[in-house]
Specification:
The protein has ten helices and nine strands. The chain is an alpha+beta fold.
């Protein structure tokens, strides 16, 4: 089914994508508190001053982000530092996830930085005391680069990814896959990854991942179950894969919208709140599906999109070349990504309803923006033409 250009996909609710609430805190108030915290954290006489405070818009609806410049005396000379603070969202702001383990995120970023060539922003401080900003936070160095936009998605046109050449987009894709491969070079055999292990039942990391997301699904739907999502999770159980690679660090939210680029090369890998231990296929399925999600939206709205990017067969081939390991079939993992994303999208949409940015639909499954995709995955009609 197709739609007229500029209309919304059939069966979804009206939501103003350009005005989504991502923070309920006052950036200037946060900056004043951060300035005092820096004065207590840095050596005496540093006299920090925070300026150029902004909260970025466009990508991300989970941890809050504050961009700022901090000047302090370093060895008797003033020096400027362009920094980023990632702050746990308040429980009153209808958070997307149940918990935000910023200590884990800080540790995994530092692990990747120390043991791979994958570009990760320099991690500076982690603060666990919620009294400082109202929640735990960490501070990292800021990296300059271009991020493929989520709002509107890069597949819709009028942005640097879409406007580039085929060779440019190929370079973006290959660089992203190399970064993913580098992250997966950190394995339980050579590193202590106990802080990334998911709890709960399951004999394998993939089983524990599934149960973790099943519990998240239960939390999201509460006493208003989704017939579609229930069917999706049953499908995952019935089709559970066996051809998976050995465990590694899983980035969790591995997609180009969480990367910064310069000259089509990755210069920063961002957003680690979904990190865990899992087979690499989990990340690869997520990388493929999050592009398919934006591509499907573009096509539904009458735009051509970017159909040649992140085709699963290409991703598997490039990943095997970069890592020396051929991943298993990605079909289940793409469905796993789409279904997990369906749960997240339901929560995100309900959050928009909470803030008055969307109206509650009559059909509970219309809270899932890509419900037609999930239905097509279940009946098999979706899989032809996506490049498996």
């Amino acid at each position: 089914m197709t739609s007229e250009p500029g209309s919304k996909p059939a069966g979804t609710i009206d939501m103003d994508a350009e005005h989504i609430t991502t923070s309920t805190r006052d950036p200037q108030e946060l900056a004043a508190r951060l300035e005092q915290w820096l004065a207590d954290t840095l050596p005496g006489g540093s006299d920090p001053l925070i300026t150029e405070v902004t909260s970025p818009e466009g990508n991300g609806m989970s941890s809050e982000t504050l961009l700022f410049t901090a000047r302090w005396n370093d060895g008797g000379r003033p020096s400027d530092h362009r920094l980023v603070a990632r702050i746990e969202p308040p429980s009153t702001a209808y958070p997307v996830f149940t918990t935000y383990d910023l200590d884990m995120q800080f540790k995994v970023m530092r692990l990747v930085q120390e043991h791979t060539s994958v570009p990760v922003p320099e991690t500076l401080w982690y603060e666990s005391d919620p009294a400082v900003l109202g929640a735990p936070f960490f501070v990292m160095a800021r990296v300059d680069g271009l991020v493929p936009p989520d709002v509107l998605p890069y597949t819709f046109g009028d942005n640097w990814v879409f406007d580039g050449s085929d060779a440019d987009r190929q370079a973006i894709q290959e660089s992203a896959i190399r970064a993913m491969s580098g992250i997966h070079s950190i394995t339980p055999e050579h590193h202590d990854l106990s802080f990334l292990e998911l709890g709960g039942p399951g004999a394998s990391s993939l089983e524990r991942s599934f149960h973790h997301w099943s519990a998240y699904h239960d939390w999201v739907v509460g006493d208003a179950p989704s017939p579609l999502l229930e069917e999706c999770f049953a499908w995952l159980v019935d089709n559970f894969p066996v051809d998976v690679s050995s465990d590694a660090v899983s980035w969790g939210d591995g997609r180009i919208g969480n990367m910064m680029f310069r000259d089509n090369e990755v210069v920063a890998v961002l957003d680690w709140e979904m990190a865990a231990v899992a087979p690499p296929e989990v990340d690869l399925g997520w990388m493929c599906y999050l592009h398919l999600f934006f591509q499907d939206l573009a096509v539904q709205l009458g735009a051509p999109g970017l159909p040649d990017m992140f085709r699963p067969s290409d991703v598997r081939e490039s990943y095997a070349k970069a890592s020396g390991r051929t991943p298993g079939d990605l079909t289940w993992h793409i469905a796993y990504a789409a279904i997990r994303h369906g749960v997240i999208m339901r929560r995100v949409t309900e959050r928009s309803i909470f803030f008055g940015e969307a109206a509650r639909p009559d059909d509970i499954d219309d809270l899932i923006l890509h419900r037609s995709t999930l239905s097509g995955m279940l009946d098999g009609s979706y899989w032809s033409g996506i490049g498996l």
